[in-house]
Amino acid sequence: MAKYFTDRDLLVLDFFVAGVPPGPLYKMSFNDLKTMIKNSKMDETNTNLTPEICLIALVSYTEAFFKNQFAAIVNICPQLLERFCSRRPDSSVTIKDLISIDLDTKNRLGFILAEKYDFGSPKAINSLYFDLLSISVFSKDELLLYNRLLNDRNLLVHHGGIYTMRYNQQNYKKQKIGNRIFFDSLVISKASYQRWATFVNKIVGKTISVCHKATVEYLKDKKIRLVKERRRAFEFLDWYE
């Protein structure tokens, strides 16, 4: 027998952060960075800081995407929380959180839940998406590469790009930076930024695809029929061009 989850007074975009599906929201920021890189030029000292700044922003937008995607899936299909909570029995939201949104969780539970978790590493992301949808976003090789991106981003944000002992140990197990530590700095060129951008763009696209497939399989397995606005929101969740 089919299960139904009924709503009233909900619009299709109410399930998404900022009222925009996670894929298109990410792509807008991604394309803005692409334009900035394209239009950037060397300054009088023959340096170009735009790729560095854009790399920091790229990681920020990518982390936000994983959080927004997770939240949207929960908002659209809260039945998935039965599986998630069975794997994370300590999962909870507080009464204070519910009061702050007037106890209306029809389309906001995912926002509250996602905010409680760390989406800042590929290991954490894989764990959260596995517990929700039984999928892994990052393969073993992709996980290692994304960690390298995070190391570059953290070096730029926390050390101004100047090489540290920790960065050397994390990234140069075979080839040491040597006496360049604490003196030289990481340089992000247009080409290196574009390589990272191509990589994360692929990961985001793959995430959207596997999330959609896994949710469809869950709905079929549990014989769940999404009502009109949730069904339309779920279709929007697959958008990414």
Brief summary of the model shown:
By secondary structure, the protein is mostly helical. The chain contains ten helices and two strands; from the N terminus they run βαααααααααβα. It has a domain at 3-135 and 207-236.
Q: How would you characterize the largest beta sheet? A: 2 strands, parallel
SSE sequence, one letter per element: EHHHHHHHHHEH
Q: Give the strand order, joined by hyphens, for the main sheet.
A: 1-2
The beta-strand count equals 2
Overall geometric form: elongated
What proportion of the residues is helical, as a percent range? Answer: 55-70%
Q: Strand pairing plus helix content: what structural class?
A: mainly alpha
Distance between termini?
37 Å
Which percent band covers the strand fraction?
under 5%
Walk me through the topology.
Blueprint: E1 3-5, H1 22-39, H2 50-76, H3 81-87, H4 95-100, H5 109-115, H6 122-133, H7 140-159, H8 165-171, H9 190-222, E2 224-226, H10 228-236
Parallel strand pairs: 1-2
Helix pairs in contact: 1-2, 1-9, 2-5, 2-7, 2-9, 3-6
For the structure shown, list the relevant keywords.
mainly alpha, 10 helices, disordered N terminus
